[in-house]
Design a protein that fits this description.
Length: 306
């Protein structure tokens, strides 16, 4: 496990010149930090970059194009399998009812086993990909028993509503949107299968930069404070989220009321759970070899996030 310190060739960014490059997904970190008022006096300049999902965000972090960003439980595993230069530096755990496999309202599919031979839309390497794998495994199936259509959520929504796929594996707010606007039905959700973890992941280049470490720490502390604020100001957060994303307020509120993240330690329990998910992908032959998840965590900020 990589824990502390900087490499012998570590960069040193002067404090007054620190610019924190943060990867985000629409309506996520920047939106909640803004709504909670926690960006008003942020002591460093932030450059935001928006990504459609976790995998491309982590590619950017590995390449040094961004310093850190938030993703679900599966993208770090795929990044680790590719030997990406990244490490999970913070974690939270949320509800998993919104991690759903959806079907159209009038679909004949009633059980997970009915998915055999069907088409499922899912973002490759995203948290929903892990949800599909574990759901199928729990019901005696593998990903070889279905056809996975790898689509980002915006494209998957169109495919789902137009009947081009039989099911869609996704997360909130897309789950709430599909339920309210397309009358989607939940075939199954993440309870008993998904671990619900979400991560703040930093690039090794940023972690090796002593000048950026205080900025990363400050960002992490404020981000997890913002998560707590959102959980205790749900209507206010739903209004801000709707305004940021263009979602209907009712959709945003349904998603907010169904979710609630709490900060957790990057500890042996978390690593073991993530390792089990990684091993499941290896056994399914989705990933080419064994992933050692413990090598892709960094606990140097844990004391500040307790």
């Amino acid at each position: 496990m990589f824990t502390t310190g900087c490499s012998a060739t570590a960069q040193h960014t002067p404090p007054g010149e620190v610019v924190l490059k943060v990867g985000d997904q629409k309506g996520n970190a920047k939106a909640v930090l803004t709504a909670a008022g926690l960006l008003n006096d942020f002591p460093y300049r932030i450059e935001w970059s928006t990504f459609a999902s976790g995998p491309p965000l982590l590619e950017a972090a590995s390449a040094g194009a961004i310093d850190l960003g938030g993703v679900g439980n599966t993208p770090p595993i795929f990044a680790a399998a590719a030997n990406a230069r990244i490490a999970a530096v913070g974690a939270s755990q949320g509800q998993v009812e919104a991690d759903a496999i959806l079907v159209p309202e009038n679909s004949p599919l009633r059980a997970v086993t009915d998915l055999k031979g069907k088409n499922i839309a899912v973002a490759k390497g995203g948290s929903a990909h892990g949800q599909v794998l574990l759901t199928l495994r729990a019901n005696g199936l593998t990903t070889k028993d279905v056809t996975l259509n790898f689509l980002q959520p915006s494209d998957a929504y169109g495919a789902f509503t137009q009947g081009r796929v039989d099911a869609w594996a996704v997360w909130d707010p897309y789950t709430a949107q599909a339920q309210q606007e397309a009358k989607a039905r939940v075939l199954t959700d993440g309870r008993g299968k998904s671990n619900g973890y979400g991560f703040q992941v930093a690039g090794r280049k940023a972690l090796d930069d002593k000048g950026k470490n205080p900025a990363i720490k400050e960002y992490l502390v404020r981000y997890y404070k913002a998560q707590k604020w959102a959980d205790t100001h749900r209507e206010e957060w739903a209004k801000a989220w709707a305004a940021e994303t263009g979602l209907k307020y009712e959709v945003a509120l349904a998603a907010v009321n169904r979710n609630g993240d709490r900060v957790v330690k990057v500890d042996d329990t978390l690593i073991r759970s993530q390792q089990e998910l990684a091993d499941a992908f290896t056994e399914d032959k989705t990933l080419p070899g064994k992933v050692d998840f413990a090598k892709f965590v960094d606990t140097r900020f844990q004391g500040d996030l307790a």
